[in-house]
């Protein structure tokens, strides 16, 4: 099929990057044919109508997130830009990703257990000690503590990208409180309502059961194997930018949405204060960073957490998911060692590869990076959400110089990576298709087995040419379809 | 109040409830992807061979809907296959189907019309508005794309109807008759859905893991078709299984669409009806006792009896008793020969 026949696609360049929909000859990839046909023949008026319905649904359902800026009197509540051309992953491709994700998360979990217990990987010289103890997210409080089922990360989000050949790479691991579940689920229900014919004829793998798996995983953490554990989702509150997601998950999982002030610590246990009195909490799925969990153990001025929580946790009377201290493994410098972890703990070769990464604390890496900053992406090791980044090829000389200074001052704060030619997928822009860079946040749930939610959340950098996909930086999302056959 | 007024009110309640249930049921199944469910997992039913062109999963889904509406024989009299477009038309806009949405609403409207002077005018506005809106809908503008919106609107209309009843009707016989009809219909509806998901006890929980994966969306659809998904989670957490769903939808005491709840609500409204006629009062007492028996049966029912009942004899029996109740109700309050179906 030629592009020219379809007005939606004219001026679409699919040459310099891997394009999800078109191959090098600008032909539509087989698994995208249905989607291409549908969006190729939609009239601008039909598209506009779909768009209006979509926006209205999202506002009505309150599928929004909040942006805070210092110079703003009222925080900006906005819907996440949702692009309705789905990203499609063929079955065989997904099966490989799935295996790779399970492998990676299993190794990461073993790593976290190890560094809070024997520290074998450090003693064996695979990971440098300084990288762990100097890590902002290392929690000495977790040392020697056994967590339920040895599961540190009930839910993790692994970000994947593809290079110009279409090969998948892991860009980063989010092991603390990854978000995006609600967009994934809401995106699916919006798509199935807006484009039911396309959806039903595409045989998309079901994601609903994954919510059940999520709940089972949380339940399996209950102390002393309690049969009917009481589970809460601990949120920082309605002002948190991801609050919509917290309400969504609590509702779907049938667990209680609570804030720190709703919980009390007593006799080494945690209780929920409700109208019936005190009710013992068995499992806390927290969407709160470590340092806010317990002012007695961590940041003393935090009002969000529960004083005494860590005591109850240490006493084994309450489970926390994800466990405190998992951030030590999603640090961007530790990331560079994940392939070694896989070999070390599992004696397997990594199925999914890392993006080539330079540890700037090492002199040779640093020297190379400082000479090539205009070619590299530089990231602060402990920041996420697209903050504190330099994208060399897109940066001005001034920006590069500023980063070079910062790196020389405190090299261990930074890593550098090869600038990847992120794959692109068409999005609808003003009635025509335009290519935009995307990544994929895939979610792994760990219970008795590791489970990967089929698909995950495709994030889109909506600005032309931009490589930053984070929603906090104005990125959008797409529904992601794994074909079931 | 005239006998025929009582009958009209009772049927207003039933028809509006029926319209609402239909809308929920079809809306959920519309977006259910069931292609992966093979005939082996789900009993395809007797007609499987007659539909060689339809994939087994697709056929199951629409066939089950017709079953859940209790219209299998009527439908099969008019159609020889369970095609999506046929079933959807049959259930929504088919004027020859006595149970289609448009016919239910038309009946309800006709009944409100005979009672206009006795009922709050807002009730007429809503019923008439719904009917006129629905009459405008031809099959032409009813496509898959607009399905979600269409059924969403139906739910809004029926909620409006219920809201008007709730907020402005005096709590007198008129109100109680409408509510009796509503809750009797609801009891029947929930039981029919339960019967339809396992006509031959064919969905079981002891399937291999990959089959459980295929059945999950279907079980979820059952819960969503009675808007019970969230409530279910609160009681059974991750224990999504057919047994748990049946137990929940039959025995739960606080979920308003469970058999238990609906039957008790009907009982309350039945007792609320005040009669002066001596003969009628005797008959009224009799039907209260009949509901009492059914309540007692439910109260004595153990969860195990439901889960061991692979042939679904228990829900089948409850369904028959409920239908019998409808007949007794008609015989008690309405003149013989004037009972509508």
TrEMBL record, chain A:
Limits of the Circularly permuted ATP-grasp type domain: 86-461
Any single Pfam family the record assigns to this protein: CP_ATPgrasp_2
The protein, known as: Circularly permuted ATP-grasp type 2 domain-containing protein
Organism: Paenibacillus plantiphilus
UniProtKB/TrEMBL annotation, chain B:
Native organism: Paenibacillus plantiphilus
PANTHER family named in the record: BLR5612 PROTEIN (PTHR34595), SLL1039 PROTEIN (PTHR34595:SF7)
Domain DUF403 as annotated: residue spans: 1-334
Top-level taxon of the source organism: Bacteria
Pfam family, one: Alpha-E
Name by which UniProt lists this protein: DUF403 domain-containing protein
């Amino acid at each position: 099929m030629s592009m020219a026949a379809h007005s939606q696609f004219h001026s679409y360049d699919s040459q310099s990057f891997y394009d999800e929909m078109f191959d090098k000859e600008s032909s539509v990839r087989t698994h995208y044919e249905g989607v291409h046909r549908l969006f190729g023949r939609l009239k601008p008026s039909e598209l506009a109508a779909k768009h209006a319905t979509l926006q209205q649904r999202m506002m009505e359902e309150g599928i929004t997130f909040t942006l805070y800026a210092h110079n703003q009197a009222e925080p900006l509540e906005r819907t996440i830009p949702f692009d309705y051309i789905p990203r499609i992953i063929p079955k065989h491709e997904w099966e490989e990703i799935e295996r790779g994700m399970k492998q990676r998360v299993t190794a990461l979990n073993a790593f976290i257990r190890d560094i809070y217990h024997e520290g074998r990987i450090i003693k064996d010289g695979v990971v440098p000690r300084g990288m762990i103890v100097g890590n902002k997210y290392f929690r000495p409080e977790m040392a020697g503590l056994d967590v339920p089922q040895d599961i540190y990360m009930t839910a993790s989000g692994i970000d994947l990208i593809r290079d110009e050949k279409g090969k998948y790479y892991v860009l980063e691991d989010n092991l603390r409180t990854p978000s995006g579940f609600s967009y994934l689920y809401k995106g699916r229900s919006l798509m199935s309502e807006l484009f039911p014919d396309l959806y039903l004829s595409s045989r998309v793998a079901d994601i609903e059961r994954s919510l059940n798996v999520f709940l089972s995983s949380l339940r399996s953490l209950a102390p002393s194997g309690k049969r009917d554990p009481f589970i809460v989702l601990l949120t920082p509150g309605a002002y948190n930018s991801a609050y919509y997601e917290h309400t969504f998950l609590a509702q779907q999982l049938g667990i209680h949405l609570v804030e720190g002030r709703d919980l009390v610590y007593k006799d080494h246990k945690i209780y929920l204060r409700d109208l019936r009195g005190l009710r013992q909490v068995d499992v806390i799925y927290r969407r709160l960073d470590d340092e806010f969990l317990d002012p007695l153990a961590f940041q003393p001025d935090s009002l969000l957490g529960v004083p005494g929580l860590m005591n109850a946790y240490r006493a084994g009377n309450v489970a926390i998911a994800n466990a405190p201290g998992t951030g030590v493994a999603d640090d961007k410098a530790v990331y560079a060692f994940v392939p070694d972890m896989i070999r070390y703990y599992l004696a397997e070769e990594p199925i999914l590869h890392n993006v080539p990464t330079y540890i700037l604390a090492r002199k040779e890496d640093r020297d190379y990076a400082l000479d090539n900053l205009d070619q590299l992406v530089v990231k602060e090791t402990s920041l996420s959400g697209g903050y504190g980044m330099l994208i060399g090829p897109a940066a001005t000389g001034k920006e590069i110089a500023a980063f070079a200074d910062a790196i020389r001052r405190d090299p261990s704060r930074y890593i550098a990576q090869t600038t990847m030619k992120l794959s692109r997928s068409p999005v609808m822009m003003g009635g025509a298709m335009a290519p935009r860079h995307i990544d994929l946040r895939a979610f792994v749930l760990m219970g008795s087995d590791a489970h990967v939610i089929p698909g995950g959340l495709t994030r889109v950098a909506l600005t032309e040419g931009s490589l930053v996909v984070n929603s906090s930086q104005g990125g959008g999302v797409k529904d992601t379809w794994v074909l079931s056959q | 109040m005239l006998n025929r007024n009582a009958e009209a009110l009772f049927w207003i309640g039933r028809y509006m409830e029926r319209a609402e249930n239909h809308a929920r049921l079809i809306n959920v199944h519309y977006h259910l992807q069931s292609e992966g469910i093979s005939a082996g997992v789900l009993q395809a039913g007797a007609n499987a061979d007659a539909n060689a062109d339809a994939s087994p999963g697709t056929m199951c889904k629409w066939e089950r809907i017709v079953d859940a509406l209790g219209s299998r024989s009527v439908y099969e009299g008019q159609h020889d296959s369970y095609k999506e477009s046929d079933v959807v038309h049959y259930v929504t806009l088919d004027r020859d189907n006595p149970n289609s949405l448009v016919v239910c609403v038309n009946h309800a409207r006709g009944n409100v019309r005979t009672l206009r002077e006795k009922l709050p005018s807002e009730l007429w506005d809503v019923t008439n508005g719904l009917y006129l809106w629905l009459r405008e809908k031809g099959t032409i503008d009813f496509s898959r794309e607009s399905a979600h919106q269409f059924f969403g609107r139906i739910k809004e209309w029926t909620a409006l109807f219920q809201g008007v009843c709730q907020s402005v009707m005096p709590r007198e016989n008129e109100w109680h008759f409408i509510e009796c009809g509503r809750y009797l219909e609801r009891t029947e509806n929930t039981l029919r859905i339960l019967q339809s998901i396992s006509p031959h006890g064919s969905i079981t929980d002891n399937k291999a893991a990959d089959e459980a994966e295929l059945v999950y969306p279907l079980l979820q659809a059952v819960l969503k078709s009675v808007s019970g998904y969230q409530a279910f989670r609160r009681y059974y957490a991750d224990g999504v299984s057919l047994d748990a769903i049946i137990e929940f939808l039959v025995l739960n005491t606080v979920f308003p669409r469970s058999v238990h709840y609906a039957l008790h609500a009907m009982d309350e409204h039945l007792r609320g009806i005040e009669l002066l006629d001596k003969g009628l009062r005797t008959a009224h007492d009799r039907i209260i006792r009949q509901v009492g028996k059914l309540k007692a049966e439910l109260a004595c029912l153990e969860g195990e009896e439901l889960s061991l009942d692979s042939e679904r004899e228990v829900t089948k029996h409850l369904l028959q008793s409920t239908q019998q109740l409808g007949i007794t109700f008609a015989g008690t309050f309405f003149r013989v020969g004037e009972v509508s179906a």
